[in-house]
Design brief:
Length: 190
Amino acid sequence: MPPEADLFGDPLISRSAVFNGPRVRHVLTREWDTNLPRALVIGNNPSTAGKDSEDNTSHWWNRWFMHWGYGAYDAMNLNPFITSDPAEAHRIAENAWTGPNWDDRDELHRNISAVGRAAKKAHKVFVCWGAIARDDKLIEAVVEAIQCEEGPGPDLWCWGKTMHGAPIHPMARGKHRIDPFTPAILWRAA
């Protein structure tokens, strides 16, 4: 049975999100056809999208995953602290590692493990934290949780690479912005 559609013939999207308080989002989920593959996409930091709202990035992901034959995706991030400012996200994560706030440090550790578990359940994993992700140790901890811990790890796919090899974010500025019909490329093999 085909998925439900709106008046324009577009699939109806079921939206959900898992938060831990007002400043931490662990997972953003969009689902429209449970008979099709499910993806995991990993960015740098959660922005404003939630259960009842979209942001520019989630709109882009909706179009891309529908176009390329997916029925759902879960979005997670290197760090789970909600802010639309990547510099602020970096500051929060840096303070979590080095500062006195043990709760934030615990959130980062929980997040790394949760991303690893979610990646093992997805049909395909996409990464897009761009050049704004400056914490190489956090990036490697997340990649290791995905590809090295229990069981075989999946390949990691992206929509392009920066000149330094980071996986480009679809909402990159200017000429680096990615068309939502661009095919994915392999970023790192398992």
